[in-house]
Amino acid sequence: MTTPPEPAFVVYAQIQVRETQREKFLTHILKLAERSLADETGCLQYDVIELDRATDLFGVYEVYRDAASYDVHGASVHFHAWKVVAEVVIAEGGLDVQTGRRVPVVRRRPVTHAGFDVN
Measured between alpha carbons, how far is 9 from 82 in angstroms, rounded to an integer? Predict the structure, then answer.
């Protein structure tokens, strides 16, 4: 009997950006997302979400093959470069990070978006 694969490791961060730092934040967080997806085989998804434009509140949703892949991300050069910028652009107390495991979902019908099958 084979062991099922470990569920994907998920990170969700809510980020309050300092006033006047929106553009710098976006430039650097998008670069981090791009490098993570390009350079880390274990990084499966990296989304930056604008939660509230008026208050510069953002979310980041990351999916990794497993916890070890997330550890690789944390040790990467691009993540360490981001941490330096984060000290400047994130408001004091403005970072809340949650981690967990993706729960498998059984799809019972095709998923469509704007009439296109996305399965």
Answer: 21
Residue in the structure block whose two tokens are 């916890």: 67
Indicate the pTM of the whole model.
Answer: 0.82
Q: What's the pLDDT tens digit per position in 42-89?
A: 999 999 999 999 999 999 999 999 999 999 999 999 999 999 999 999
DSSP class of residue 25? H
Contact between residue 72 and residue 42 where contact means Cβ atoms under 8 Å apart: yes
The residue written with tokens 């996305």 in the block is 118
Domains located in the chain, CATH noted:
9-103 (3.30.70.100)
State how far the Cα of 56 lies from the Cα of 15, in Å rounded to an integer.
8
Q: Which residue is it, tokens 């095709």?
A: 110
C-alpha 39/C-alpha 2 separation (Å) is: 30
- CB-based burial label for 31 (10 Å; 0-12, 13-18, 19+): middle
CA angle at residue 89 from 86 to 76, to 5 degrees?
20
CA distance 86 to 21: 10
